[in-house]
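Support request, please re-run this one:
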Amino acid sequence: MYTAHFRCFRGCPGRWPLTDVIYTCPTCGGLLEVHHDVAALRDRSGAAWKRVFEARSGTTQWPYGSGVWRYKEWVAPMLDDENIVSTFEGNTNLFWAARLGEQLGVPDLWVKQSGNSHTGSFKDLGMTVLVSVVKEMMTVGSPVRAVAAASTGDTSAALAAYGAAAGIPTIVFLPQGKVSRAQLIQPIANGAIVLALDTDFDGCMRIVQEVTKDNSIYLANSMNSLRIEGQKTVGIEIVQQFDWTPPDWIILPVGNLGNISALAKGLSLMKELGLIERLPRLVAAQAAHANPFYRSFLQDFAGKTTRKAEKTLASAIQIGDPVSYEKAVAAIRQFDGIVEEASEHELADAAARADRTGLYTCPHTGVALAALTKLVQRGVIQRHERVIVIATAHGLKFTSFKVGYHDDQLEEVEAALANPPIYLPAEVDVVKRTLDKRLALAQA
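Re-run finished. Output below.
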């Protein structure tokens, strides 16, 4: 039988069931992690695990058609299938960004479209696990009566949707004026209690931690290790999509640092169980206006750096005090990783350039693409290497960002690739002359 339990990430003694209401180590106050019985998982060879996962891909057998629950034994093995709350999350496509890759100097460039999901972001991967465990907790008589999270947008959307699907009340804490309208309406539509607070994300995080000290309200932020278990499957899925061959690099935008911690966890387990022989290098990309992890990296992680996050177009990663700092440091060190930053102009320009080649990127993916551009220009990433950029959300969530760019209305951004509509009278000759000019420019 496969098992998993909570334990202290720093190594303090103690183990707790996944259905316990616990978020940090009672001894040291550090984060917990979900620990799997790797010895038991070794009852199958790496080749055998590959066959299991391949057989489940796309199946209609509940719950294995999900891109998360396909790997159930590696996620939450003891969970009753009847309590799983799933929207067929995961299973997102890899976009071969051939034109963009040639322009940047890395033709083997792929974009993992994690935003092509039920609520439009990678947060669905973690929320299916957390809400499923909460449903099981409530089934066996837990005092939990609601689930809450602080959010910059995408977490709240995922929590509200999965809570609604499960019939579990949800509460979201949002910083006023710092969430796109598309993100704000999602939890509202799904029936969550939406609290817009006059503070930033870090302020919302402090309040939700106080509110959830009452064990009747369960904390759903990424300091909750259950979310990490779902989010780690993105790396496993990427490798499976390449016939079990890991890429050379994986680049992703980071804010609270749960996603890079999760990515490292999944890939490490693959190597430990013999599915892969090497690990890719990881790049954590931050907006320059909210870059505490980048600043810590420049000091070789001598200590945790925090800062007051400034307003950034990449609003979902506008975080100055990341919760999963220790886990992310361990990930960067284990994977010979790099932390890079992108200015407002760089991230907007990178997003616009990608869109010109068939993508439709959110500003956070623009941060990752800007980091890629810098690393290629510095010769760190080589032309022959395979690079995966993880797109964390769908561009349609950030329509104001797109409109602002093409109207050349974004602060600190020179919109060199702006493509505003051309307003003309309804006269054939005028239209033809205009088209001739524009097509000549396009072919020049």
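The radius of gyration is 22 Å. The mean pLDDT is 95.
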